[in-house]
Amino acid sequence: MMACMTDTPARLLTLLSLLQTPREWPGSELADRLSVSARTIRRDIDRLRDLGYPVEATKGAIGGYRLVAGTAMPPLLLDDEEAVAIAVGLRAGAGHAIEGVDEASVRALAKLEQVLPARLRHRVSTLQNATLPLTRGDGATVAPSTLTALAGTVTGRERLRFSYRAGDGAESKRLVEPYRLVSTGRRWYLVAYDLGREDWRTFRVDRITDPLATGARFTPRELPEGDEAAYLARSMARAQGELDLDVTFGASAETVAGRLPAHLAPVATGEDTCRVRGRVPESVEWLAIRLAMLDVPFKVHAPEALRTHLQALTTRLATALA
Asked: What is the pTM of this model?
């Protein structure tokens, strides 16, 4: 439970952030999240409506509040053109798991599309369908609608059903408690508790189809291995093995860090040199290509398998230019 929020502007912003999650919020749950009375929540809802936010209320035992699409954009300080541009950009980036477009960006996309009027949603879809990106990420693509659906259940702590295709092609139906979307720079993964298997699982998002929020809330469980990113790293390592990586770069740590996934964070060893050392859950083939694409000098100290693969790759490239 959060500390009591007596600052009305701060409380309104927090309330708006919760309502922008695509789900219905019971008044009692909002009051509990903000540590205020149900009466205060009703007053704050009226204030948001006065500001132009289309908050819908439903009555009954399971009634609550939700932010819906209105006839015009609520006052987000964005005009129509800016809203469309942001939505198109977030969709394009999120669908290819580009580094730096992480869960926060997906949540932003989910919130923006939640309140876009129908005319703007149509423009976003038309623009995206009419364009083809020249470059793509080096991982499988993901439908932005799938990402936003998953992000909504993660934020709302809502159980999720979906169809899943395993690496061997086997199809299955899953019911999970979703905890976190994690981008490795190549792919999106969902960390969740699988209710059917009664255990923690990681799912490649590009293998998830037909995601459906069930409406059933869940109480968070404690992860077995630290946070969600740490659990994903360990899970991937168990699945494909780890490599003891040791590489020196002839560029600053800041430059190299901006071109590598977060789990390959370099440590500065000088003004224009840095080093990456540690166990990483990656293949030598992928590492060789990523290092070659950095456009900075580097030297591989380990593993030997990576050195061998780079030598073979160099030979093939030299032959192609002969």
From this structure: 0.50
